[in-house]
Records
---
Amino acid sequence: MEINEAIKRAKANDQKAFNFLLDNFWDYVYGFQLKRIQNENDAEDIAIRTFSRAFDKIETFDENYTFKTWLITISKNIHIDLIRKKKTSISQVISNDDKSVYQILDESPSAEDKLITEQHLAKLLKDIKKLKPHYQKVINLRYFQELSYKEISQELNEPINNVKVKLLRAKKLLAEVIQKTS
């Protein structure tokens, strides 16, 4: 399959085309982010988010441009968004001793966050059950059993890239279910 053909087929929601694009561009996007942030987990997370966003918005891709460049632009924007989120969640504390400023990252959930999470968990579980069983399983393995992609790949006896695409699709479908029931 050629890249342009895969893009056209992906726009028609062809799962094999999504797999083909992921296989062809994963190393490029992941490697780009790894050079930028020098953290394997963060680079992988950004790469996954990049493909998720790209596949969600594939119909907006203009064939007059290079697909690889489009992916890198999405990847850069996701990285910038993550940096902005981290900066807004940092509070400054002034030490009385030496009047120097320290930055402390406050990631602990508030009481309200915990309550909202508990209430939404029951609804989320109901929404997950509306997905096809293979999507339910991959979401369960990743987010509830907290398995790595490699562990999920072994559990399902599927290649890692298939697991990543399946998880992307499952999250997209789950988001659609959640929007419909909200």
---
Amino acid sequence: MDKSPDAFRTISEVAEDLDLPQHVLRFWETRFTQIKPMKRGGGRRYYRPQDVELIKGIRHMLYEQGYTIKGVQKLLRDNGNQFLVAVGSGDMKAVEAIAQRKQAEAPMTPAAQPRGADEEMLVGEARAKPSRRFFGLGKGDDDGPVAADSGKLSRDNRALLQEALFDLLECKRLLDQVR
């Protein structure tokens, strides 16, 4: 006998339906506070239908789209649970609607917003604009990437190098996953 679509599911049922080990579901509960199964006596977990839909979205982003846990957490923070539920169910109209709503609500474009020193960046987005000087295309030694007197990189150039390093490490991680 099959359960109704709005029935609660045990961890073993969810794990089987989504082809995930149970320990992964328990781990994701610690990383994604949005997943809140009901717990009964003895610690048995019962997942609500909306929890299962959210887990489908998280699974899709992690396993099929190659996001990191931190990246999915950022998506949840920026777009909300419904965005990942829509992604997990393949409802692209809902995904577009949510994205358009977020864009309409945003008072400024992300490029125009000032960045804090501790704000997390997406991989591939530079903190500073590259200059001809940074790439050694300046007119003289004084215009190179290293200040003539200090022997140190400027703050902007250091940020550019840091971003390039992060990009390379992310590329390496993705390549290692494919192998």
---
Amino acid sequence: MRQTIFTLAPRERGYHIITREVMSQLPDLPKVGLLHLFIQHTSAAITINEAADPDVLTDFESVFNHIVPENLPFLVHTMEGPDDMPAHIKAAMIGHSITVPITDGRLNLGTWQGIYLCEFRNRASGRRLVATVY
């Protein structure tokens, strides 16, 4: 088992395919195993989804902003700005970790799949990830 912690380049609010950036930070992968990836933040998330059509990234942003809009009048946690509490809710909905099988020394993602960073804050710093290879 090996573990590495790294920080992604800062990104604007939205959904971003980070597969290549993640791969560049990983140690040599075993022939067979698992990659567990965990984001150490409460206002961003990671997931796996469509990586071929950039419209999917736009649609994710639109749908989640519709489901959890900013400036909801009943939110109490507002001291960090109107995007903060919605960011926490969206992160909880999507999740903070993924697991990907490793086959023949490569991530065994589906043909159209990629790893997403889901950035929910208007101004965020780089996001820290913990990658554990089993």
---
Amino acid sequence: MNGVSSGVLISLGAYFLVMIGIGVYAYFKQANDTEGYLLGGRNLGPAVTALSAGASDMSGWLLLGLPGYMYADGVVSIWIALGLTLGALLNYLIVAPRLRVYTEVADNAITLPDYFANRFEDKSHMLRVISALVIILFFTVYTAASLVGGGKLFESSLNLSYGTGLWVTAGVVVAYTLFGGFLAVSMTDFVQGVIMLFAMVIVPLVAFTDLGGVSATTEAVRNIDPSLLNITSGMSIIGIISLMAWGLGYFGQPHIIVRFMAIRSVRDVPTARNIGMSWMIVSLIGALMTGFAGRAYVQKTAMTLDDPETIFLVFTQFLFHPLVSGFLLAAILAAIMSTISSQLLVVSSSLTKDVYKLFFDRDAPEARQVLVGRISVVVVAIVAILLASDPDSSVLNLVSNAWAGFGAAFGPLVIFSLTWRHMNRNGAVAGMVVGALTVILWIYGPFQIDGMALNSWLYAIVPGFILSTIAIFVVSIMTGGPRESVAAKYKEMELNLNK
């Protein structure tokens, strides 16, 4: 094995040991009940909440996808970063404080389906079952997509087989998630978020220095193609809306908003918001600048780059010492693993609370529910590994479609359940179903506009979000508003929010 691979493996080995060590620590620290295992006892500090939400959100897309987008298309990629930033900020302002208070008022809801059912006192369990099925199905595939990234990273950077990378990535994630639950996931996310932030600062900084500074790099990119510096190059109004609409997805992503349910106190939300948004802005800028500098670097060195999304890997290989390269590769793994662990735990939560307890053992003691949760983590991981076993898996579109599906099905439902006192159960069901079906038909239906597939013309989350919102309003008004007990819970939430 060459020196580069040895240095990289030393750094990656140390990283894996730290992650597993955190899982062991969390195992002994947390309470052995469902609130402890699935929600960390609602005792997360603002810094851990913020970086955990950010790290589980961004995945490998931050270090691979976004730099690749900037590399290929230039500064038009800024639109998607602006949309994500605005969506994340509104999520902290609108959803975070209300969801923290209301999930506790709504009979101490542990999962998002749990919250929907308790919020509207849905005795038929329709809301819980539909939302749980959406989460289990989409997140199992979503987890597989993330595992593919881990497998390909090991294959391209360490000359190990794709299958080895798949099993190592899954094995480490399952180890700390299985034992440490939500607390371990959140604590490892915090560490992973710090690593990702460092990588997004140091890589573009060293790259720009190697290229002679920002001005020299910008001039080099201009000489390659002036349109790369035009923020509206090749973009229509619809295209800009599609890119910025990614921000709408934040309101409906279970693995992100569950952090708001777990924060220690609603008074900690502003601090978490400031930390989280600062982390996000710096990270997004770093990712964009990595892709921008990469375009000039590839031109300067006359290398061939077949896949723009590997530009971060190129910099780690050619600009840094092997030990530092290993640390930077750990940043990519951190992004991938933080998302996998969050998704595993969300699916495990739904399988435990919304399937096992609801249909098989309503009186299951807390210890048995925790055991079922741990078994669910392993089962979902194995299914995801099987789905990801093909190294040629094309998962980017699946991730995009899942983001749109969650955003349209759950986004308006979450927002209006927290802000509109007249919403009722029928409106909630209608909004969720209409949002999900709109996205499915928009993506997979045989419809076109100007010769383009609908999802290529306009991102599916836009019509899905709009029609879901309309369905919630129309059906809630037509079917007579919520029961008195539901309205009373909403008033209690408002009172607690203003304390």
